[in-house]
Amino acid sequence: MRRVAIVVVTAGLVLAGALPALAGPGEDVLRPGEQLAPGQALLAPGGAQVLVMQPDGSVGMYALDDVVRWTTGRGVAGSVLSTDATGDVRLVAPDGAVLWSTGTGGSGGTLRLQDDGDLVVQGADGAVLWSSGTAQAPSSLTGPGRLAGDDLLSSPDGRHTLLIGPDGVQLMGPDGTVRWAPQAPARPEESDGSSSGRSQRAGATPTPRPSPSAAPRATAVALELREDGNLVALDADGAQVWRSRTAGHGPATLTLQDDGNLVLLDAAGAPVWSSSTPIGPSALEPGGQVAADGSLGSPSGHLGLAVRDGALVASWDGEPFWSSPTDGAASVRLQEDGDLVLLDGAGAPVWSTGTAGRTGARLVLEERAVLLVTPDGEVPWQVPVPDGLAAAPVDAGPAPGAQPTDCALVEGPVAEADVVRTSSGIRVHPCLAGAVDALVTAARADGVELGGGGWRSPEQQIALRRAHCGPSDADIYDKPASACSPSTARPGSSRHERGLAIDFTGGGRSLSAGSPGYAWLVEHAATYGLTNLPGEPWHWSVDGS
Asked: Is pTM, for the whole model, over 0.70?
C-alpha cells in the first residue's frame, strides 16, 4: 500500500506529514475497517480538496482557498473518523460515543473525497449512498469552450446558476427566477444595436437590466465561447441565435460572480461584456454610502435601489417605480442619526428622508419594500413595491391565523401573513422572533454583525429545487436533498417554509466555517434555540435540519 506524506495548510492549521490511516493508493478513500486519527487527512485525486481529522475532534473539508467547505460541527478532542466493517462512517469520541454518522451501516460502503468537493459514501456498485452535498460546479468557462446538456456554471457561493433548462440557456438567481437569457435579435426597426446583456467599456456604468419578459427569449440549447472572444448561443440545429459581439478580444473567460453578474473577461481580466444582473447588498448600515456606480438589492435581486441620473431610484426587475424629486445627486448616505441623505458631487445634501433622531437605523431591502428600520423595529420611512409589480407567492401553506408560540408545534409551511420581521430584518415565525433578535443583539455586542434570510415561500422553495436539483418534477419533488447541489430540502419539508430556519450572512455573504460569525454561533446559538445543519455553516434551525 502506497503512502504519500502531505503538508496541508488550511485556516492557520499546519499538518506536516499527515497521512490517511490505512488509506488506499489514491489517499482519497476510507474503506471499511480504516480510520483517520487526529492530524491525518484524505486528499482528493486532483489535490484541490482535503478532508482533515482535526485535533479538536471535528472533521473539516478544505479547498485551496482555505475556506472550510464542510464540517461535522463541534467535536471532542481525540476523536477519530472511521468506516466500520458494515460501511457506516462515524466520528467516534475517545469514550466510544458516536458524535456523527452517515447512517450507511450495512452497505459495505467506502468514504471517498471527490475532486468536485463532494464527500460521498459509495456502495460496491459505485452508487452514492450518502453525500455531503458540497459538490461545486465550476464558476468559469475558459475559451474556447462550450456549455451544453447538463453542463452548468455556478457562482462560488452557489446562489446563482447558469444552466440549460427546458426553455433554453438561463441564468437563475437565488430564488430560481430567470435573471438573464440570450434573446433573439430584434427586427431592424426595433434594434438599438445592442445584444442581450451589455458590452463593457472601460469606466462604463452598467445600465439597469431589462425585465426577463421584456423580449422573447431565443431557444438556445448551448453557449459557445469561441477563440476570438465571442460568446455565441446556438439552437438545436447549431444555428447562431445570439452573440455577445465581442469578437476580436482574443482568449476570454466567462465567469459567474457571487453578485449574480455573468461577465466575459479578456486575457488581461478586463470585462468586455456582462449580463448586467448584479445584485447589490440587501442592507446599508449606519454611516454607509452608495455611489452612483453601486446599488442595493433584495436577496432575490428583484428589488433594487440606486442613484441614477441624479435621483434615488427604486426599481423592480430593472424597471423604475419610484424616484426622489432630485436631479443632482451623486451618492446616498445613511447618517449615524438615521437620516438617509442624497449628496451632490461636492458632498452637499440635496434631499433626505427627514428621519434624523433614529440613531442606529438600517436601510433594508426586503422582497416587497425598501425599509428604514430602527433598532427597536420602528419603520419611519419606506418605499413599498406596488401590488401590480410583485407577483403574489404561491399559498401552499395554511390560511393566515393564530400561530403557536411554541416552535415545536409548528408542523408545516406557514403563509407570508403569519411570519414577522425581526428588528434585524430577518423574517421568521413569531415563536422564534424574540430569540433571533436577542441572538443578533448579543453577537453585535461581541463585535460580530449577523444578517440573514429566514422564511421562504413555497414558490421560492420550488424554484430553488429546480435550480439546485434539476428541472423535472422528479428532481423537484422526489430527489433527496443530499443529491442536490447545494443540498436543498424538498418542498413542504424545509424549515425555511415554516419560518424556523435562518441562513446567516456576514458582510452580505453566506457564513463559512472559518468565519467569525460561524465561530460565534457555534459557541452561542444553542442558548437561543438554534442548531447547525452539519456541512452548511450558514444554516441554523430549531432542530438542526
From this structure: no
